[in-house]
Design a protein that fits this description.
The protein is an alpha+beta fold. Helix content is about 25%, strand content about 25%. The protein is built from 3 helices and 10 strands.
Length: about 190
Amino acid sequence: MKLITLYEAFLDASPNIGNDDQVNNLLEQINEIRHMPNAPRSNEGCWRSAHVFKNIDWLLKEITDKAFNAVSLYSEKDHLFAEEIKSIGKNNLKINYWTNVNQPGSINNLHSHKIAIFSGVYYIQGTDTGSLRIMNPANTLGDCNNLSPYTRDFNYLPHDRDLILWPAWLPHEVKPNLSNRERINIAYDILI
């Protein structure tokens, strides 16, 4: 008997990324540019910007490390992926990031980042601001047998300073922010 894995996807979450000074400096930089126009394709109640911040090498290093770990993990699981990465070189990873500030009551609509390899988010303020829902594309209609493997959605309740990464092809959304605080994050894509 030969077992072949058809599909596997992992969400990698790390808590408590960044110290007080680093996070406060990033938050100050965000607040300094919030008067700028909103980026296109923003959700209602969400201010978005692709501004490049200073002094965030600490965060970019954490994202890069997480991406390299994901490349290693998926290279072990998916031999075709391993061959493609090997021919391109995993050191050619590029981070594209942007800022989201979601007001209380706002959501981020269901979407995916199909041109990227991995996507993720760093929650500057995430505690009690709405769960991140990763939808299983195998069960988009929600009509598969509940006992069937790999058919369930996944909900992640973020906390301040959580850094998360997942395969970019997974549809995801952010549920309503039912708190009285803004959800502030840096979302990112890993490209080659």
